[in-house]
Amino acid sequence: MVVMIESLIGILLFTILIVPLTLKNPLISVGDYPPAIREKCIELGLIEKREQRFTRADIIRKGTALLVFVFVFAFILKQFNGANTFWKGFRDSYLIWLIIDWYDALILDCLWFCHSKKVRIPGTEDMEEYRDYRFHIRQSCIGMALGLPACLAVGALTAIF
Predict the structure, then answer these.
(1) Are 46 and 121 in contact (CB under 8 A)?
(2) Highest taxon of the source (predicted)?
(3) pLDDT tens profile 95-135
(4) Structural domain total, the chain
(5) Mean pLDDT along residues 135-140
(6) What's residue 114's pLDDT?
(7) What pTM was estimated for this model as a whole?
(8) Per-residue 3-state assignment (H helix, E strand, C coil) for the chain
C-alpha cells in the first residue's frame, strides 16, 4: 500500500515537471520526440542539427534528476517503507520506477502526446509520427533498463544507511 501511495506521489510530481514545460514550449522536450519530428524541426530551422539526440543541458538535467531520485528514494524507502536491506530498497524503488515509467509511456505519451494538438510544434502539426505508439513503447523499455542501475544504487544506499 505504501508503494502505491509513493507511486501516485511520483506520478503527480513527474506530471508537474513534464506537462507544463512541454505545453509552454514543446521544443524544450524535442529530444524526447520521434526522430522524424526532430528532423523536421532541424529542416525548419527550429533547432540546430547535432550529433547527439540530447544536448549537454538535457543530459545534465536528466542526470541530476536521476541522482536526486536515487538519494531521495533511498531516504524515503528507509524511513517510510522500512527498507533496510539491499533487496527491499531495490525491489520497492524499481516497482515505483516501473509504475511511473508505464504511466509516462501509456498515459502521457500514447494518450496525451499522441493525441493532443497542444504539444505539436509549428510546422510539424500534420506529421503522422505524432502517433508513433511503437516509438513510445520502445522508449519505455529503454526507461525500464535505465531504471535498473538507478534502483540498484537505491538498494545499495538503503543497505548502507
Answers:
(1) yes
(2) Bacteria
(3) 999 999 999 999 999 999 999 999 999 999 999 999 999 99
(4) 1
(5) 96
(6) 93
(7) 0.88
(8) CHHHHHHHHHHHHHHHHHHHHHHHCHHHHHHHCCHHHHHHHHHCCCCCCCCCCCCHHHHHHHHHHHHHHHHHHHHHHHHHCCCCCHHHHHHHHHHHHHHHHHHHHHHHHHHHHCCCHHHCCCCCCCCHHHHCHHHHHHHHHHHHHHHHHHHHHHHHHHHHC
| Residue whose C-alpha cell reads 538535457 in the numeric block | 58
**Residue 97 to residue 159: CA distance in whole angstroms:** 19
For residue 123, which phi and psi values (nearest 5 degrees)? 95, -10
Beta carbons within 8 Å of 78's beta carbon, 6+ residues apart: 84, 89, 158, 161
CA angle 13, 32, 124 (to 5 degrees): 120
Q: Which structural domain range is residue 95 located in? A: 2-160
